[in-house]
Amino acid sequence: MKTMAFPFAALLATSAIAAIPASACAANFSGSWNVSGAIQEGGQTIFSFTPRCVFQQAGATLTGTCKGPNSLGPATGKVSGRNVFFQANVVPHTPIGFRGSIQLSGTLDPENVIRGRMKVSSLPGRVGAFTAQRP
Length: 135
Prior knowledge:
single chain, Lipocalin, mainly beta, eight-stranded antiparallel beta barrel, globular
């Protein structure tokens, strides 16, 4: 009788772990992130993005702000495990600032760096790369 209890208990424990929702295993993206991204064309950088984004995470939802040297604005996003998607809607705070939206989609790697792709509203069809690290 005891030999039957162990496999049943192990099966029960495995089932309980599998029942934990994916959002409970999500990485924590709260806090400050230094972002560096660029879109290139013909070997030339045609757009760069270097803000500090500060996020608050509630479950799978991100909210916060991104402020770069020339633009700033609110950011919202979603988290799924170690994957993150966020969009910053920025306006200029200097004469050369950018106005528009920047969408970033990436994955948190084991070195605690987010790496992924970015798109910019003013450059439809073009995709660039970005990284983000905690300061």
